[in-house]
Amino acid sequence: MKISSYLSIFIICFLVSNKLFSQTKTEESKTVLNPDGSSSVVKSTSVTSSEDITPRNNLISINPLKFFLFYNATYYRKLNNTIVVGAGFQIPTLKDVGGFGINAELRLHPLGKALSGVYLAPNVSYNSLSSKQNSFTTSATSIGALLGWQWFPGEQFAMGLGIGMDYYMLSSNDNDVNSFYSSFQGSSPALRLSLIHISEPTRPY
């Protein structure tokens, strides 16, 4: 049920993004004068389409959905038209929880339009959390893959959505907790909704 819901959201956003960059149809009517003095109406139709070709090499992304638990930011660097690498960090927002998290991601853009359009992203993350009230600590490592789509409604603003799967491995300094964690380790659906992207386009001189 969760996977189907994520897929529905992904398809809706894909259709909306397509609408933003859809073709425009223009119809015109002109009156022309014939050699015999009469006039006739000539109708013409033109179809135009636009595509964002602003060159971009760097991008900073935040996921506002995570702010309920983590402040987060990820930096992405375009290596070529098909490969983008990213690295990020996060810290807990809950006042009684300390620690940090790091993540790394490789984005593969099969259409050769890196930083925009569809991409496949294998990723890995590590989080270390601790309680500020006692000595309890826990860590979580995940590996996963994401199918995503990113588009730029504005020159320096992007939106993105991704769905995929993550595999989690949990551990703690408490043996009883480790036994409890064993029932939660394994695969889980992943949803990424990036509503705010700050990018700096690279302009030719």
Written overview of the protein:
- It is a single chain.
- The chain has 205 residues and is mainly beta.
- It is built from two helices and ten strands; from the N terminus they run αβββββββββαβ.
- It has helices at residues 2-20, 175-181; strands at residues 24-33, 39-48, 56-62, 70-78, 83-92, 97-108, 117-131, 137-154, 157-172, 186-201.
- The strands form two sheets. It has an eight-stranded antiparallel beta barrel with strand order 3-4-5-6-7-8-9-10.
- Strand 4 and strand 5 (83-92) form a beta hairpin.
- The model is unreliable at 1-17 (pLDDT under 50).
What portion of the residues fall into strands of 2 or more residues?
over 45%
Instruction: Briefly note the structural class of the backbone.
Output: mainly beta
Strand order of the largest sheet: 3-4-5-6-7-8-9-10
Oligomer: single chain
Radius of gyration: 24 Å
Number of DSSP helices?
A: 2
Percent helix range:
10-25%
Low-confidence stretches: 1-17
Distance, first to last CA: 51 Å
Strand-and-helix sequence, N→C? Answer: HEEEEEEEEEHE
Major β-sheet profile: 8 strands, antiparallel, barrel
Q: How many β-strand stretches? A: 10
Q: How confident is the prediction overall: mean pLDDT?
A: 77
Outline? elongated
Nutshell version of this structure?
The chain has about 200 residues and is mainly beta. About 15% of the residues lie in helices and about 60% in strands. The protein has helices at about 1-20, 175-180; strands spanning about 25-35, 40-50, 55-60, 70-80, 85-90, 95-110, 115-130, 135-155, 155-170, 185-200.
